[in-house]
Structure formats: C-alpha cells, structure tokens
Amino acid sequence: MGRGSALHPTDPVTRLRGIGPRLEAGLGAVGIHRVLDLLLHVPRRYEDRTQTVRIVDVPAGREPILIRGVVRRLNVRRRGRRGRGLVQAEIVDASGALPVAWFNQTWLAQQLRRSPEVYLYGELRPDPRDGQPQLVNPVVEPVDRDDPAAERIVPIYGKLGPLSGRRLRRTIESALSALDDLVDPLSPDLRLSLGLPGLGETLRQLHHPNAPVSGSERQSWIESLGTLSTPAHRRLAFDELLGLAGSVTRLRSLRRQQQAPPCRSRRRLDELIRLPFELTGAQVRVARQIRDDLMRPFPMARLLQGDVGSGKTVIAAMAAVAVLQNGYQVAVMAPTELLAEQHHRSFRGLLAGTPHEPLLLTGSCGVAERRRILARLCSNAPELVIGTHALVQEGVAFERLGLVVVDEQHRFGVAQRQALVEKGEGPHLLVMTATPIPRSLALTAYGDLDLAVLDELPPGRRPVRTVVRRRSDSDRLWRFVAREVADGGRVYVVFPLIDASGGLEAESLHENLEDMERRLSGARIGVLHGRMKRSEQEGVYEAFRQGRVQVLLSTTVIEVGVDVREATVMIIESPQRFGLSQLHQLRGRVGRGARQAWCVLLVDEGMSAMATQRMQAFCSTDDGFRLAEADLRLRGPGEMAGLRQWGADGLRFASIFRDHDLLELCRSVATRLQEAGKLEETLVRLAELYPAARDVPGY
Questions:
Q1: What domains are there in the chain, each with its CATH number?
Q2: In angstroms, rounded to a whole number, what is the distance separating the alpha carbons of residues 137 and 124?
Q3: 235, 439, 486, 530: most buried by Cβ count inside 10 Å?
Q4: DSSP 9
Q5: CA distance 201 to 218
Q6: Residue 300: phi, psi to the nearest 5?
C-alpha cells in the first residue's frame, strides 16, 4: 500500500503502490476506479499449490505439481522476436533433478538468473526426443518470504486492463486492508438469518483462501473453490440476485400504487368476440384471470406464457375488446413486421363482429398513412393499433391508452416495453411469449409480472413427428419432400446462415440453393432471409401462404409469426447451432392443419456428444417447458431468451443455472425487506457494489 493513512474502499486506485496516471487510465477504461472496484475483481479459478513434491516422488500422470528447487543448466534458444524460442533448464532439489522447458517465453531467462531458488508449478509431459518426463511451461514463483505465493491456494485472475498475473495478484493483496472499513450492504440480522458470511470476510476468503487442515474437509473445500460454490461465492451471488429480485419487487410495488383505467365487463371475455372454435380449458381459465385483472384498482401486469399454438392471440384479442368497450385505446407491439402483419390479419378476423377496425403502424408505413394513424390515436376514440417498435418512437402519442400488449417479449428490451407503457397513465400490461422458460427463470426475468400459463393445446392437433437424419442418407428425405409437395403440402428448410462462414461449421442457405433446386426440380422454391428488402420478404411469404411457393428456404426469420396451415414439413439444417427452445419454435411452424406434420433435423457425421444428447432430448418430447428445462440443464441459461433483458447476461458473480436455488430465496427476502420498509436502502447499498441490475426499471 502506498501513501498516507489507512486505506478505505472508496479511495481511488492511485492510493495503491505502483498505480500511477498511466495504470490509472488503463484500469479506468475497464471500470476500475476505486479500491473496492479492484477487490470485486474476484479470481476466475484457483491452483492448489499447498504441497511441494520431491523430485524423486513426482507422479507418472499429468496432474499439476509444485516443486521447490534451484534452477541450473539454463540454456536459451531464441527464434525471431517477442520471446519466441526455447528455454531449457533443470530444477534440482535434495532428491534429484528434473528437466524443464519453456516454449516461447525466452524473457523468463533473466528472471530465472535473478532467482536462485524458485517454485515451479505445472504439468509433467514426456520429452518427444527420449520419452523422459519433463516439466513443460511451468509457472515460476521466486521463493520470497515476504510474498508466500506458493505453498498455498493461489488465486488466478483474468487480465484486468493493463494488469495481469503476479503483478495483479500482489496489487490486490495490497488492497485487502481496505476491507477493514467496508460497509456491508446486508444488515447483520439478515446475514445471520440466512447463514451468509460478511462481505469483508467474503472478499478476504476469495482473494486469500485458507484451506482447512483436516484431509477430507480440506479436499471438499478445494473442490468447492474449483466449482465457485464456497460460502463466499454464494454470498456474492446472493447479493447480485437480490439486487435483481429487489428491483422487480420495487417495480411491482410502484405499479400497484398507480390508478388503473377502469375496464369493467359484465360478460365473459369469450362473449365479446367472434370465435371460430371452442376455447380450451386453459384459455377459459386465463381469460377469467385477465378479466379479474382488468377490474382491479391498479394496472394489470401479467405474463402470458403459452407453448406454440396454444392460443395466446385469442386471449389478447378478448382483453383488447374488453378495454376498447370501456372507451380506452390498445397498443399491440410485435418484434417484426412479419409478426405485426400476422397479428393484424388475426385481430381483424377475431374482431369482425365488433365496431373496432385494427390499425397497423410499422416502419414501412407511408407518410400519409402514418399521419392518419397518429391523428386517430390522439383522438378520444377507442382505437386498437398493432405495430413494431415504431410504436415507441418519438411522435407517437395516445390520448387514452388503456392496454399494452407486448408479444414475444424476449425480442425486446425491458426499456422498450416500459417506454410504451409510459405513453399512457397506468395502462394495463399483457406480456406474451411462446418461448417456454422454466418457472425459476421466469420469476427472475419477469418477476414484476403475474404469471399465467396456457398449458393446453386446441383439440385435434396432431403431435409433430420429429426425427434425426444424417446428410449422407438424405436422398430418401428429399424424395419424401417431393411426395409431400405433390400431395399439396408445403415445406420449410431452415438454415443457420445466409452465406458460408469460414469460422462456423454450419450449412448456409446460398451454398445449398442450387442443390435444392436440383433435388426438388418439380417444386416451386422461394428464399426468405433478413437481408432482403421488406417488400421482397412480404412477397415471398404471401406466395408461400397462397401456395405459389411450395418449398421455402429460410433463416430463422420465420421463427415466430408465420402461420401457414398447409405447411407439413420443417427441415432444420445444422440443428446443433440452435438452442432447444429455438428448435421448438421452428417446429411450431408446422402441424397447424389436419395433416400429419414432420420435423427433420439434418445433421452431419461427427456431431459432438453434447449436441447428440440435445437432439435426442428434442426428439423425445413436444412439450416446450420440458425442453426449456433440458436446455437449462445441458447448456445453462444462455439459451433462455429474455434473461438478457433483465441484465442477467451482465451478472458477474451469480449463475442463473448454478445458483437457481437462490432465486426463490432472493424473491422472498426482497418481499420481506419491502414489507419492513428496508428495500429501498438495501437496493441503494447494493447498487454501489453490483452494477448488473442498475438498468432494470425500478432499481
């Protein structure tokens, strides 16, 4: 430590020895300004250097070992610049000598000459010349009684701006004294009730871990360090997840303090529109919940989660009419123009028996049409407008916004959703998603919303048969496709890429187009992808819907919102490039009519064991929620679309997958703090430490 009196967590990093203006600028560029910021840069892993091994006792395997000895017979062979070449030596202790080699680290020679006695930590590998064991590229630590970096658990840090390696470790060690004055964001009674260590103790343990003496206890503790699951790791994860849970709890509370647009209805919602079919039991249940929501004194805030084809649009249409009949306006926001247009057609049909004609506002609207729509929204008339993110642009204003419907929320940021809500005075909110999210994750990503689930498909829907086929045996597949087309079916072929990419092993649309035209010479083929002009996309989609195109080669632009009942086959190229939930969304594009539908995963030889396991899981069930759980288990939360909108991708210490048991705990703790009037001050203290949830509305 450097200059002046005792170190404090809020001191600038320049208080630390060796941090001058140049290093200060480099650290500032990566968000390190205070001593506390540095201390929150926790190790990414640990190396067990607690026990040295005598050279005579070195094991035969390749596990890392620690040797203490003297370096002799140092020889340097340089090749080119920047440290390229070979450093050879031997390390000697009282029991013998062992050859050592460092590749492309010739700069180490000077350090080795200055340090007569060193610790070397690394793996043994056979010398390719004679097969004898040698230590290859070991870490070098001079024996320094003032810095016992060896013969203990050594933290290994990721590079932090200009600092890395031993220098970063020593800088952090010099900052640990600041923890004496660290104010814990959690109260002592809360920590005690949860069995969590104090924050100062937590950071000390992470940066300078002390292993228990007992053999079995020590081994278990070292393993928990490796899996980042020690009490100290869990304390940081808890803090971060509590910040997220607290922010959505606060947002929920603020919403319930608002006055809702009164939307009463004496009739059931299903009596308000023209239904071409009988509702499922799940739809009746959810419609009743939403009717009750609309009559409460505070705004509805509900997440409607339903599998592909479960009938969410019908629920939204019924809610919309209930609000319109009370004299208020409704805005329905979809992530793509394709889906917005699909909703526009669906709502027009469902509302045909009412006096309400849906408006469509997208980026493709002409100036005159846009002006006409905006003028109608500024009137007192009860209008229903369906659109894309164009709805949240400046200049779009509502006179009496009573209901906001956001479809496929995972395609939007929370800020976009909130921007549309704020165009009214406490409007009701219905968020819809067909992406199944496990309950624990839904409570984190959408914790400010009441959850409703459509867990029942309309009667008569046949399950889509899902199979894996190898590319080497694809001739039979294309003959089957030709028969389906001849029988009046339509076929999707989905690719992960538009053009070939040298960095990705995956099929692309354009490199397969000529082959598709040759194999399916009797079929009318269309191409659809995101680089096409909007008018071109609309033309191709409409041709496919009407049957003028029979086989549609596409990217995932058809993942949501495309409803063609004659489509019977979905072929997915390189399916290992997609998550299970996304595969399930694609599969949901077929099987919407009376005929049997198929989903074919076309794979190459040599697929990894993990990918094979995922494909087997996908074929085994058509239950989207089970697939979401499987995706979470196999790949972690990265595929759980929507979580990034709540900052979950920015979590530094918590893992939604690893720490799933903390999710419910943090929700209940946030509720307790809210009831005790302590949530606000806790969030303020947490925000000073953990930035992940700061962008969440209500934090």
A1: 51-151 (2.40.50.140), 269-454 (3.40.50.300), 465-621 (3.40.50.300)
A2: 9
A3: 235
A4: T
A5: 19
A6: -65, 140
